[in-house]
Amino acid sequence: MTSSTAHRSGFACFVGRPNAGKSTLTNALVGTKVAITSNKPQTTRHAIRGIVHRDDAQLVIVDTPGLHRPRTLLGQRLNDVVRETWSEVDVIGLCVPADQKVGPGDRFIAAELAKVAQRTPVLGVVTKTDLVPQEQVAAQLLALQEVMDFAELVPVSAVDGFQVSTLADLLVARLPEGPQLYPGGELTDEPEATLVAELIREAALEGVRDELPHSIAVTIEEMAPREGRDDMVDVHALLYVERSSQKGIVLGHRGERLKRVGTEARKQIERLLGSRVYLDLHVKIAKDWQRDPKQLRRLGF
Ligand SMILES: Nc1nc2c(ncn2[C@@H]2O[C@H](COP(=O)(O)OP(=O)(O)OP(=O)(O)O)[C@@H](O)[C@H]2O)c(=O)[nH]1
Ligand SMILES: [Mg+2]
């Protein structure tokens, strides 16, 4: 028997061009940072699950990489992650920022989604509404309506919180009835080491540009509480770049830049782990790793 108070549970995913605001929106819905964000394209590199707990539902949001025209094997792999994710969820949100014209990239994604839309509802989500006047939001909703037949259209801002809970309601309404999928209080199923590596990458993305953001990868070589101490975790991490010229930029003059990245990342990691952290961070060159299947595998792609 169904009743209006039945508990719902399931999966939603956000898709869209790089930089559309998918990860920021995921974090806003979950209420904490589960995915790193930046103003560089292709910040997200795997499907990240964030869990929204409510009395009436458990909504698992899967944040995906931005779908784009791939130029490397990594880019292809990222796009594969997106397509695999949207074929598995209960509801999809196509994110389009309010401050940019609906373009060929959005139409390309919508055309692909139209095939999925027969069995999975797709919501049109206009993000970043805080950046533009109201009329422009209205115009963007109209423009988005043209690209495909959406189950629902909703404008949101992850920054000022506008309609974030409305979006949660709309997503939850599309979930099947079911029990909790994750224990109460669990906000993500990302391994701690992955979150730590991501926080380091987020800090490293700050202030770099052009090709460099794409070339950066971070691995955690070792992470453990310091022997004999319960208030200190030692983290040994490697920051990969693809060329020696990039290593110079990341290090900065006398290693000053890397030091700043380490300090910023350490603060974030301490907040995440709730303990003091010693971060040992080194830069290594993995030549052209974005194009090399073997190295991609080693880096987890
Ligand atoms: N003003 C404003 N900025 C936002 C909002 N949402 C995201 N941004 C900014 O937009 C940029 C991209 O945000 P992300 O959440 O990383 O975008 P993404 O879609 O996950 O990007 P990829 O992972 O590269 O696909 C960041 O600089 C965010 O701070 C919003 O609601 N308002
Ligand atoms: Mg992202």
3D structure, described in words:
By secondary structure, the chain is an alpha/beta fold. The protein folds into two domains: 8-173, P-loop containing nucleotide triphosphate hydrolases (Rossmann fold, 3-Layer(aba) Sandwich); 192-298, K homology (KH) domain (GMP Synthetase, Chain A, domain 3), CATH 3.30.300. The protein has ten helices and nine strands. The protein has helices spanning 22-30, 73-86, 104-116, 134-147, 164-173, 192-205, 212-215, 244-251, 256-273, 293-298, and strands spanning 8-16, 48-53, 57-63, 91-97, 122-127, 152-155, 217-225, 232-241, 276-285. The strands form two sheets. The protein has a six-stranded mixed beta sheet with strand order 2-3-1-4-5-6, with helices on both faces. A hairpin with a 3-residue loop joins strand 2 (48-53) and strand 3. Helix 6 (192-205) runs antiparallel to helix 9 (256-273). The longest helix is centred in the C-terminal third of the chain and has 18 residues, at 256-273. The radius of gyration is 20 Å and the shape is globular. The model has no long low-confidence stretch (mean pLDDT 96). Residues 16, 18-24, 37-39, 41-44, 65-66, 127-128, 130-131, 157-159 line the site of guanosine-5'-triphosphate. Residues 208-287 form the KH type-2 domain.
